[in-house]
Design a protein that fits this description.
The chain is of the alpha+beta class. Helices cover 16% and strands 25% of the residues.
Length: 236
């Protein structure tokens, strides 16, 4: 991932598993689905008497708190598992612990920003009962909220860098068509010189260059001379 926010490490009864999310657009529910799919792939779950799968880690949305919740549930002892009707899946290489203990999840700063948590291991030491971590700051579930357009011809003294000529806010859902029609033309000065090409680049709001997956793009540019500008002003 260009943002370095697509890996987490799960420590399950002392064994560590690093999971890498495929590049994509994820909600908290999507993150949770991928996390639990990896737990299934590694047989890190239990099956109850109704054949439902039980997981010991999850990522959920807490809409009341405008936050994301990271929940870790204690893996029961064999006696507790028997009482609860839990069995291990076929192929599991782990055993129920002698003392109930939670798994641990380790995240880096980039992934932490998605769920509103600082980099670290949660919990820092295994616990014997369930633990819950609510975002300590506002989650940034999507690291990109606007597009910045630059052009090699532009000289805009009010921007830094000075070749920025337009910005496009993202106000639609993932996969929807982005349409931006400004109420009037936005004019920018062109740096004096001779040019044999025009180059437009797209960045996010932090000026990280975007990786474009969909090349269906229509962009209309208008050029005018200094004389056009004078004539336009004189007609007002």
């Amino acid at each position: 991932s260009a943002y370095g926010n697509n890996t987490i490490t799960l420590s399950f009864l002392g064994t560590s598993y690093t999971f890498t999310f495929p590049n994509g657009y994820y909600s908290a529910a999507d993150m949770n689905a991928f996390l639990q799919s990896q737990m299934v792939a590694n047989n890190l779950y239990v099956i109850d008497s109704s054949l439902n799968y039980g997981y010991f880690a999850e990522i959920t949305t807490n809409s009341v708190r405008y936050a994301i919740s990271l929940n870790l549930y204690a893996i029961p002892t064999a006696a507790q598992a028997s009482t609860l009707g839990y069995t291990q899946p076929s192929g599991a290489t782990w055993s129920f612990p002698s003392t109930a203990q939670t798994p641990q999840i380790t995240i880096n700063t980039a992934f932490g920003s998605l769920i509103g948590q600082s980099a670290g291991t949660y919990p820092s030491t295994v616990q014997s009962s369930n633990v819950n971590y609510i975002s300590s700051f506002t989650p940034i579930i999507s690291p990109v909220n606007s597009y910045i357009l630059t052009c090699n011809l532009v000289s805009n003294k009010l921007n830094n860098p000075n070749n920025i000529f337009f910005s496009v806010p993202i106000s639609v859902g993932f996969g929807d068509l982005i349409i931006n029609t400004p109420p009037q033309l936005v004019w920018n000065d062109i740096t004096s010189g001779v040019y044999d090409y025009l180059e437009i680049r797209l960045y996010d709001q932090l000026l990280n260059q975007l990786q474009i997956n969909d090349y269906e793009l229509t962009l209309l540019l208008a050029l005018r001379t200094t004389q056009d500008k004078i004539n336009f002003a004189s007609t007002k």
